[in-house]
Amino acid sequence: MSQYGKAEYWEERYTRDPEPFDWYQRFAGVKDLVSVCFTPESKLLNVGAGNSRLSEEMFDEGYQNITNIDISHVVTKAMQEKYKDKGPNFKYLHMDARAMDFEEGAFDGAIDKGTLDAILCGESSSSNAQKVIQEVHRVLGPKGVFFIISYGLPEHRLQYLEKPEYDWNVVVKQVHKPTISTSIAITNEDKDAPNVHYIYICTKGQPKGAKQ
Question: Picking from 50-54, 176-180, 183-187, 190-194, which range would have the lowest pLDDT averaged per residue?
Fold first, then answer.
């Protein structure tokens, strides 16, 4: 699945198949955890939004300040057109998550649903994943939360998230996979993982080891 780490793959995929697709979970599957981490007033960043319905479903639940970014020009343009009537605080921008064009501390929270997993499939995977995490950490405010929905087991993901330079506490939760169709493993390392997805909640300004 190394193609998942390449921007060219996503351009071709979204051109060929423009219909909405959600990796892993719809909003309903993580709603309770999201509501603990964010409020409707939170300024949120969706990293690698693609054509997922996650942000749309969050918008309908009252989370209406969401900036969505993706490396694909094709999907960004399509989503801008699709959601042009959602208002100025719900937007889609073409952007590389490894070098985001946002000021430090610009967001209260960031959400990643499968983006780190996809990056970890590609070339220079560890370096690119670390760049994304560093950028997310930079654009989050002092009490910001990085909310990651992943297929990756804790022993494969915490090594990237629990580094000394990150002043956040990481809590791991589990949610059941909803259906076969949305629970595709995109990394070979996790093909034998249990029937759950992992939620990594990284909270800045929280003592390390604190329980969410």
Answer: 183-187
Angle in degrees, CA 12, 81, 21, rounded to 5: 50
Q: Taken in order 129, 48, 204, 34, is the CA torsion positive or negative?
A: negative
The whole-angstrom separation of Cα 22 and Cα 53 is 7
Sheet with 66-70, side-by-side order of all strands: 90-94, 66-70, 44-47, 107-113, 140-150, 196-204, 168-176
Instruction: Please give the distance of CA 134 from its chain centroid, rounded to a whole number.
Output: 14
DSSP the chain: -GGGG-HHHHHHHHHH--S---SS--HHHHHHHHHHH--TT--EEEET-TT-SHHHHHHHTT---EEEEES-HHHHHHHHHHTTTS-TTEEEEE--TTS--S-TT-EEEEEEESHHHHHTTSTTHHHHHHHHHHHHHHHEEEEEEEEEEESS-HHHHHHHH--TT--EEEEEEEEE---STT----SGGGTT--SEEEEEEEEETSPTT---
The string over 57-77, giving b where at least 16 C-beta atoms fall within 10 Å of a residue's C-beta and e elsewhere, is ebbeeebbbbbbbbbbebbbe
Tokens 């959400």: give the residue. 111
Residue with tokens 């969706």: 46
Mean pLDDT of 107-128: 91
